[in-house]
Amino acid sequence: MGRCPACDEWDTLIEEAVVPVGSSPTPSGQTLAYADVDNLTFERIQTWNPEFDRVLGGGIVPGSVVLLGGEPGIGKSTLLLQIAEILSARGTRVLYVAGEESSKQIKMRGDRLLVEGSNLFISTETCIERVFEEADKIEPGALVVDSIQTVLSEGLQSAPGSIGQIRECALRFLNFSKQRHIPAFLIGHITKDGTLAGPKALEHIVDVVLYFEGDRYQNQKLVRAVKNRFGPANELGIFEMTSQGLKCVDNPSSLFLSERAENVSGSVVFCAMQGSRPVLVEMQALVSQTNYSTARRTATGVDPSRVSLLLAMLEKRVGFNLLGSDVYVNVAGGLSVAEPAADLPLVGAVVSSYRDLPVSPKTIVFGEVGLAGEIRAVSSAFTRIKEAIGMGFEHVVMPAGNLPLPEPVKGIEIVSVSNVEEFLEAVGL
Ligand SMILES: Nc1ncnc2c1ncn2[C@@H]1O[C@H](COP(=O)(O)OP(=O)(O)OP(=O)(O)O)[C@@H](O)[C@H]1O
Ligand SMILES: [Mg+2]
Question: Which CATH class is domain 255-426?
Answer without folding.
Answer: alpha beta
